[in-house]
Amino acid sequence: MTRITMLMAFVLSIAPGARAQGPPRPVEQPRSVTLTLAEYNRLLDLERRAPAAPAAAPVGAVVSSASVKITVDRETARGTFALAGQVLRSGITRVPLVSGATLIDATAAGRPVPLVTEGQALHALIAGPGAFAISADWGSPLSFAPGRASFRLPVPEAGAARATIDVPGEQADVRLSAGLITRRTAANGRTIVDATLDPGSATEVWWSMRDSAPVAASKDLRALADIMTLITLDDSDVRMAALIDVNITQGELRTMRVRLPIGYELQSVTGSSLEESSPVDNDVILTVGNPAARSHQFLVTLERAHAGGSFGLDTGVVSVHDIQRERGEIAIEGVGTMDLTASEPAGLHRIDVRELNASLQSLARLPILSAFRYQRPAGTAAPQLALNVKRFDDAGVLAAAADRA
Description:
By secondary structure, the chain is mainly β.
């Protein structure tokens, strides 16, 4: 009885623990991946391979732009250099600034910038990587020579360099040994020029010290003109070519106004000294590139249509405005078989075709039918020419003939 009681007590004591346990877990499958030998070897190579280091910049820093503002006083030239660029490497990098010059002060973001010298070159020590902007003060004494003053301007080694130079005197003629002046203004007794400089080199800046140089009185333009005109009578149109030779006897020629005959359409204007041509109404304004030249030559070509066959034509010729004396020759050539009748109005004199100017004869491509010469004083109208053209039909001809048989 005692043993039965102890067994029941033991069963009752382990029953709560059995009820607290969960259901049995199912049997888990082994976790594995099957790889080929080649793939396994590739993974081992990737594990052993060291990561590639980033490519280093070829230079430590670059200066992309530099602008200089120079103010000239009585004996000195003072300026401020504004340089912007990029430091490409980590750590402290030497940034090249100028060569052969002394900077008074250099700051970046309001803080002083340490400077070092290597030979003639001056460098700034900038921490990178990152962008930078440096402002540096510069000064130099002026050099004086008879009639002019000058100073030597160092140009930073930058991608682009620009300068603004302020010198005393409104009549100062500022020049640069290297670079290009893009703008020039004068106000309040000073001359200000904007220039594009050659980076990395020193530029000499000089100017005249005369503030009020006497201005020579401009002379009136006096010129003589010779006009060789070739009129070509074609089947359906009339072409005119005028070779204009202008000789300057006084003053300088900048623009010339050429009067065109009524009824013609301007085709082209050419000339070795021609810079620009602008048609205005029945005229064309010619602008020359070298006003100081004493002679100019232009070729003007015109064209007008006609009804064809036999026709009458009243035509003027090309002339030049505001000329002291104008001489001219007219040659008439025609296409096909025709009978040409040309009147001889006042001012025109008929001449033999063999007396024509050599340049006019070289323009002709067909037999010349008639020729005239004229001289027009200043203030008179250009001569008019009345032509009557009678055109004959083409007639058939034998290709060959036998003299004896």
